[in-house]
Each structure stands twice: as structure tokens, then as C-alpha cells.
Amino acid sequence: MKKTVMVLGMAVAMSAPAVAQSGGDPVDLWVGTDIVDGSLLEEGVETITNSITRAGETSEGPISWEELQVVWQNGKSILRHTSTVSRNGTLVVQDTTFYDAATLAPLSHYSVHTGRRTLHIWYGEDRVTGTRTMTDGTEEQVNVALERKAYDPSSLLLLTRALPLEEGFGASFPMFDHENLTVKMMSIWVVGKEWIETSDGGTEAWKVSINMGNADNPAEYWIDTNSRQSIKSAARWNDVSIKSWSSYQSE
């Protein structure tokens, strides 16, 4: 069975792209702006371990791997980002997203969510097109109009790491929602610096608050001020909290 999905993206105010600033209102981040510096991201593999606490009981969560690799396509530098989530040795999610390596402007995304669906989409200047196939065989033709180009949600942390982070810096930006096939606004804010103890001694990190649509419970990330690698994160939904730690293997 096939059906076509025609969804209009959320209207986003059209204003001139802003420049980086600290304090005051957040930067209105446009896809393709040179405020984003993709060169701050190193190729390699990030391993993320998670713990989940629910009703006072803590257990191991899924393990995920984030791989970044720069490839050349049609004479352009492209960043390939592969994200794999596994629980007890079983694949849960695998995403592959391609971006412009310099600005993280999204080009295409392909994902497999075991037991749920597959999604293959392409980003144009004014729309997202592609196909979503559910496990029951239902195929949806994705054709979502955009008021302006949006970021891919797979890039949320990469985008944050590639911004000109400093205390008080904030940014808001449109992001395409894979599940609802709509656009929603996201925002980040640099809370300040903290010293984080690690296995090799410790490091100074930016503490960044990321609003993923739930202003009451923003996720928090700690990003190394020198390497721009993510060190750890914490998030909460209702009575469930998740804590994550990252380790890296360079190319």
C-alpha cells in the first residue's frame, strides 16, 4: 500500500542572517552561514555509553557510535556522518547523513529504525523530498515545503560543536523532524565553563544547554574547549534521566 504525504513546513520568520554574538538575543542561524565552522570537527569514531535512571533504578542504556569521515563528491568536500545505536548486540538505529563539510548544510539522510521504518530524504533549498517506508510495507512519498532550508536533526550536536562557543552565546535554528515530517525551532545556549574530570586527568569544557522542543527540560552537553569533542551529556524526560559519556578514536 502506498500513500503520498504532502506536509507544509512550519512557517519560519524570514530575516537577514545574523552574525555571531554573545549575550542578549540568540543568533538566528541560517543554513549555509559561515558562522558554522565544520573544520572544527575531526574525523574519527565517537563511542557513547549511556545509563538510564527510571524511578530511582539505574541500568545500562544502549551503546552508540558516531563516525565522521570527509569524502569528495563532484569536486566538493562532503562530511559523511554515520550513527549506529545497539542494545545488547542488536541493531536499533543506523543513520547516515551527508553534509557540506564546511557549513554542515544537509544534503541527504538515510536511516533504518529496526522494527519501525526506513527513511531516505534529500534536502533542497525550499523542500525536503524522499520516501519513508514502514515495516508493514506502507510507503509514504515525502514532499515537505520549507519557508527556508532546515538542518537535519542528526547534526544537532555536530552543529553545536562547530559554532563560535563562548559564555553567553546562543543560537536558534530550524530543524526538520524525521518523525513528524515538519520543521521545528531548536535553540542552544552556552551556560559557561566547567572543569570535567576524565580518565586522563580532566579538561575544561563549555556547558551547553540545548532546547529540543521541551523548554522545561533542556539537554545539557559538555564540550571540550580545545578539541571541540563532546565529553558527556545529561537529559531528563518526566521521571527518566539519561547520562552519557563519550570516548574517541581518531582516523
What does this structure look like?
The chain has 251 residues and is mainly β. The chain has one domain. The N terminus is likely disordered. It has a 17-stranded mixed β-sheet that branches. Helix content is 2%, strand content 58%. The protein is built from 1 helix and 17 strands.
In terms of topology, how is this protein built?
Elements: E1 2-8, E2 27-28, E3 44-54, E4 57-60, E5 63-73, E6 76-87, E7 90-100, E8 106-113, E9 117-123, E10 127-134, E11 139-145, H1 156-161, E12 170-177, E13 182-196, E14 203-211, E15 219-224, E16 230-237, E17 240-250
Parallel strand pairs: 1-11, 2-12
Antiparallel strand pairs: 3-4, 3-5, 3-17, 5-6, 6-7, 7-8, 8-9, 9-10, 10-11, 12-13, 13-14, 14-15, 15-16, 16-17
Structure in a nutshell:
The chain is an all-beta fold and 251 residues long. It is 2% helix and 58% strand. The protein has one helix at residues 156-161, and strands spanning 2-8, 27-28, 44-54, 57-60, 63-73, 76-87, 90-100, 106-113, 117-123, 127-134, 139-145, 170-177, 182-196, 203-211, 219-224, 230-237, 240-250.
